[in-house]
């Protein structure tokens, strides 16, 4: 019973870290990453479709992304969706493809990105702490129903706390590495 609670809690905490890392991909660092376009959806015959499913999205160099739609009639829709997404660049449509030229990041932009990243890290920590609370509530319920002893309950809650500390430390380490990556010029 307790092992199931530990495994479930650890799985949820790992999921929080994975979610945070997926969120990081939408942040801009020193070089462009096509993931900054991941949240952009195109109206493709009435269905909101991710940009990478209506054309190829390639980072040609450190500051340029090229979107090459598979159907040329989508160029206008893609251009307006990118403009509406407010990702910090204006799309350049040459009739064949759309090019996005990202200027080098300023120190202020890098610091703003670090702030966003820290916010994402804080959300992940809150999520991990919520997972801890949920697991502890289950343990206390088992104790209340006399399925485990008070000592087992205390020991199990200590184990959950150790797990929480481990994942919070992992989040802090990831944040530190990501901050160094973003601030590196």
- CATH fold-level label of the largest domain: Topoisomerase I, Chain A, domain 4
Spatial order of the strands in the main sheet? 3-4-6-5
Number of DSSP helical runs: 4
Helix content: 55-70%
Mean pLDDT: 90
Name of the CATH homologous superfamily of the largest domain = Ribosome-recycling factor
Q: Please state the structural category.
A: alpha+beta
Give the class-level CATH name of the largest domain: Mainly Alpha
Question: What low-confidence regions span 5 or more consecutive residues with pLDDT below 50?
Answer: none
Strand content: 5-15%
Helix and strand run: HEEEEHEEHH
Integer count of domains: 2
Largest beta-sheet details: 4 strands, antiparallel
Cα distance spanning the termini: 51 Å
Q: Kindly provide the radius of gyration, computed on alpha-carbon positions and rounded to a whole number of angstroms.
A: 22 Å
